[in-house]
Specification:
about 170 residues; mainly beta; Thrombin, subunit H; six-stranded antiparallel barrel; globular
Amino acid sequence: MKIAAGETIVCNKIDGVIGAVIKYNNKNCAITAYHILEAGKCNLSDIVHLNSYKGRIIEIFWNYDLAIIEIIAPESEIKFSEIDQPKIGPAYSLNHTKRINCRVMTVGKTFHYLAFPFNPLPLPGDSGSPIIQNEKVVGILASIFYNNATAIALSIERFIVHSKKINNNQEL
């Protein structure tokens, strides 16, 4: 099984979800919601597991609740994500083989708001799941509001633009 968006990431026996797989600073990297790694008491430079391979947390964006993990695996074992801007309309979250339909309700520079059917709803361990439209990752599931079946997704397309500015020592 390839390392891909929607697959498992494990930090000290706590399962999470890979939100996207990208090239980042010329490294093969996975992105996920940091609070899942934090629940496993993983932090910067810690080792995590992606399928049967290892990864190392190389960057944490606290304001975005995102972690970047360098993948230590042959490139032939990696399926890179296609990233796109979201559009208002149908989408789905993916956690392993569990697909949950949703709708992108609003689109922002940093966050998007989603609506889910009341059954099934994503579970707490689904944070970090990719939000997919037209088979491209348009966000990462960050927070779920069970009282009204809505959620917040982090913008991946904007995050990649912002991370390049941060790495060039520019202000956001």
